[in-house]
Amino acid sequence: MTVRTAARRLSWPAVGPPVAAVVLALTWQRSLSGAVTAAVAFFLVSAVLAAVHHAEVVAERIGQPYGALVLAVAVTVIEVALIVTIMADGGGKSSALARDTVFAAVMITCNGIVGLSLLLVALRHGEAFFSAEGTGTQLATVTTLAGLSLVLPTFTSSEPGPVFSAPQLAFAALASIALYGLFVATQTVRHREKFLPVTPAGDVIDDLDDPAHRPSPRAARLSLGLLLLALVCVVGLAKGVQPAIEDGLDAADLPRSAVGAAIALLVLLPESIAAVRAAGRDRVQTSLNLAYGSAIASIGLTIPAVAVASIWLAGPLKLGLGDNQLVLLTMTVVVGTLTVTHGRATLQQGGVHLALFCAYLVLAVMP
């Protein structure tokens, strides 16, 4: 083995996840001092960067949109575990955590990631080109899932407050998982070509057509394992720094909804970085797949999970959005529809999405 090969194998993406796993094992369920919390935060960011690298390796091997789907599902499944764990520990104080985290995920992905990706490409080329049919399908799915799970509880009358009755929650959970399964089948089997990157002329770019630049199956399997390990570490370490986040929010007299925003921002870091890097390679559709796919997975998998968990969790499960959240969601859907209709976007449209994202951040801390 040459020195160069050994250095490549010992690079941080390779050793980072195991090191982060050791740190997680040493700090799990322990009270952390300020210095230790800072160290945990460092390894958390390192695990995020390693996760992005391995997600890109897996994506290069299996192609799009499968690569975006793998990262979205992996992140969301572990995000769900984090939400349920925190809700179990927090009791009634965390009754709205699932709602706040899922809504934060929708705002981050559908405005933050989408807006930044479009802005970067439009700055360089004047316009960003993508598949209107595939992106429109994803936006429609996000809208339906959000409407069924986050909007309707605000207006139902079977139970007091923004909560579903047990039969209503069961329906929302079943509808969410069914719509998510249907979306996955549409994206990966029936209409895969509608979710692939496109050129300004409308030609589809399929990375599987260029096998010479694809990683080997062994390298892809190794990266998949390290990706899953890195994501477990991201969520576990995020839970470790969560008390420090909550203490900081309490000290700043910020609302509890800001906890959901902070969790979503941390957990979605791998997808955010991967989407921006895809935009840097002019793969706008890949960025949009990551963004909207993450929103779909966040709602489609979180709602059924917390519905089951609510059987043993204390307190009501608050899913209905507040007034300012409803306004932001409505504006996001309207603006998103106008953005994806023609299959291309300008600098202005990217800026509009980012403005909505910034408005969400402001209202999350100053409702």
TrEMBL record:
<feature type="transmembrane region" description="Helical">
    <location>
        <begin position="219"/>
        <end position="238"/>
    </location>
</feature>
<feature type="domain" description="Sodium/calcium exchanger membrane region">
    <location>
        <begin position="37"/>
        <end position="188"/>
    </location>
</feature>
<feature type="transmembrane region" description="Helical">
    <location>
        <begin position="168"/>
        <end position="186"/>
    </location>
</feature>
<feature type="domain" description="Sodium/calcium exchanger membrane region">
    <location>
        <begin position="223"/>
        <end position="365"/>
    </location>
</feature>
<feature type="transmembrane region" description="Helical">
    <location>
        <begin position="35"/>
        <end position="54"/>
    </location>
</feature>
<feature type="transmembrane region" description="Helical">
    <location>
        <begin position="102"/>
        <end position="123"/>
    </location>
</feature>
<feature type="transmembrane region" description="Helical">
    <location>
        <begin position="135"/>
        <end position="156"/>
    </location>
</feature>
<keyword id="KW-0812">Transmembrane</keyword>
<feature type="transmembrane region" description="Helical">
    <location>
        <begin position="258"/>
        <end position="278"/>
    </location>
</feature>
<protein>
    <submittedName>
        <fullName>Ionic transporter y4hA</fullName>
    </submittedName>
</protein>
<feature type="transmembrane region" description="Helical">
    <location>
        <begin position="350"/>
        <end position="366"/>
    </location>
</feature>
<keyword id="KW-1133">Transmembrane helix</keyword>
<dbReference type="InterPro" id="IPR004837">
    <property type="entry name" value="NaCa_Exmemb"/>
</dbReference>
<feature type="transmembrane region" description="Helical">
    <location>
        <begin position="290"/>
        <end position="314"/>
    </location>
</feature>
<dbReference type="Pfam" id="PF01699">
    <property type="entry name" value="Na_Ca_ex"/>
</dbReference>
<feature type="transmembrane region" description="Helical">
    <location>
        <begin position="66"/>
        <end position="87"/>
    </location>
</feature>
<keyword id="KW-0472">Membrane</keyword>
<feature type="transmembrane region" description="Helical">
    <location>
        <begin position="12"/>
        <end position="29"/>
    </location>
</feature>
<dbReference type="InterPro" id="IPR052946">
    <property type="entry name" value="Alkaline_pH_Ca-Antiporter"/>
</dbReference>
<feature type="transmembrane region" description="Helical">
    <location>
        <begin position="326"/>
        <end position="343"/>
    </location>
</feature>
